[in-house]
Design brief:
- The chain is of the alpha+beta class and 83 residues long.
- It has one domain.
- The protein is 34% helix and 39% strand.
- It has one helix and four strands; from the N terminus they run ββββα.
- It has a four-stranded antiparallel β-sheet, covered by helices on one side.
- β1 and β2 form a beta hairpin.
- 5% of the residues are buried.
């Protein structure tokens, strides 16, 4: 069974999924996966291929994902420092 993302951000048909992982020492880190949805007849499909018009959206999503991950890491650090 594959691990589910803990957060997803979408702009139009392009999205980024954020996955939380832990090292053997218990330290948290995050990975991302970008995806574009499209219709093939009545069926929705997904690809990791992006055209010219998708690239600015991918950049915006990368920025938003970076901000979200940074907030999570800062929150974790603040919680650890107050404990």
């Amino acid at each position: 069974m594959s691990k589910q993302p803990i957060h997803r951000i979408r702009i139009g048909t392009v999205s980024v999924a954020i996955f939380e992982n832990k090292t053997d020492e218990g330290q948290t880190f995050y990975n991302t996966q970008f995806d574009r949805s499209y219709r093939n007849g009545d069926e929705w499909k997904h690809t990791r291929s992006f055209g010219k018009d998708d690239l600015l959206v991918v950049g915006k999503l990368a920025d938003q994902a970076h901000s979200w991950i940074t907030e999570q890491l800062q929150s974790t650090t603040e919680q650890r420092d107050t404990a």
